[in-house]
């Protein structure tokens, strides 16, 4: 394209490099905006699955082109400060009935059987149970049930599907724990 217009090989090489870098930056921003985003885990609310200081990649396409599912770990803006993300696990989707009984959560009449939280939950929060998850919303909990502000508190509540920024796909930091997050 430039061979016929730019005769000087140094200038032609420089223009090709500038175009390549510009294209790479454009591709990076398009991927970041529409497909992936990096998030920082702050606090211990998702322990032991995720730890304070972990960095994760969020899959934005999973929430743009699909519905959240029970078990997904999602990121959403914290209602008190939308510039911060909260990362929690979906335990109820539209139409599910979430209840609190005997120090644990029950979804659609079945005790929540998760492999990461075997402790008795101290607080049921301040929302009324049983709670039916509204259409287009999800009920989320931190994996560290006793150290998490989540949907059982009115300051967070259920999360609109439109507010979900992405589903946690992979942990990238610390590198020793690199891998898929479940």
Secondary structure layout:
Elements: H1 9-34, E1 36-40, E2 55-59, H2 61-64, E3 73-78, E4 81-92, E5 97-101, E6 104-107, E7 110-111, E8 131-132, E9 137-141, E10 159-160, E11 166-173, E12 179-180
Antiparallel strand pairs: 1-2, 2-11, 3-4, 3-11, 4-9, 5-6, 5-8, 6-7, 9-10, 11-12
- Helical region count? 2
Q: What's the CATH class label of the largest domain?
A: Mainly Beta
> What is the radius of gyration computed over CA atoms, rounded to a whole number of angstroms?
22 Å
* Percent in strands: 25-35%
What is the succession of H and E elements?
Answer: HEEHEEEEEEEEEE
Outline the structure in words:
Strand 11 and strand 12 (about 180) form a beta hairpin. The chain has 2 domains: about 1-35, no CATH class; about 35-180, Umud Fragment, subunit A, CATH 2.10.109.10. By secondary structure, it is α+β, with helices and mostly antiparallel strands. The chain has 2 helices and 12 strands; from the N terminus they run αββαββββββββββ. It has helices spanning about 10-35, 60-65, and strands at about 35-40, 55-60, 75-80, 80-90, 95-100, 105, 110, 130, 135-140, 160, 165-175, 180. The strands form 2 sheets. Strands 1, 2, 3, 4, 9, 10, 11 and 12 form an 8-stranded antiparallel β-sheet that branches. The model has no long low-confidence stretch (mean pLDDT about 85). The chain is elongated and about 80 Å long.
Gist?
The chain has two helices and twelve strands. The protein has helices spanning 9-34, 61-64; strands spanning 36-40, 55-59, 73-78, 81-92, 97-101, 104-107, 110-111, 131-132, 137-141, 159-160, 166-173, 179-180.
């Amino acid at each position: 394209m430039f061979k016929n217009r730019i005769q000087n090989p140094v200038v032609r090489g420089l223009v090709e490099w500038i175009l390549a870098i510009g294209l790479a930056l454009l591709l990076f921003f398009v991927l970041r905006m529409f497909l992936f985003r990096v998030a920082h885990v702050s606090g211990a609310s998702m322990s032991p699955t995720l730890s304070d200081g972990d960095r994760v990649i969020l899959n934005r396409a999973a929430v743009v082109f699909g519905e959240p599912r029970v078990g997904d770990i999602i990121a959403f803006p914290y209602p008190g400060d939308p510039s911060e993300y909260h990362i929690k696990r979906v335990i109820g989707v539209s139409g599910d009935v979430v209840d609190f009984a005997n120090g644990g959560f029950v979804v659609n009449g079945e005790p929540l059987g998760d492999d990461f939280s075997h402790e008795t939950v101290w607080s049921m929060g301040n929302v009324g149970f049983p709670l039916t998850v509204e259409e287009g919303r999800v009920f989320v909990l931190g994996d560290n049930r006793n150290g998490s502000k989540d949907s059982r508190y009115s300051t967070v509540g259920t999360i609109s599907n439109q507010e979900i920024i992405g589903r946690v796909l992979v942990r990238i930091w610390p590198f020793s724990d690199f891998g898929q997050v479940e």
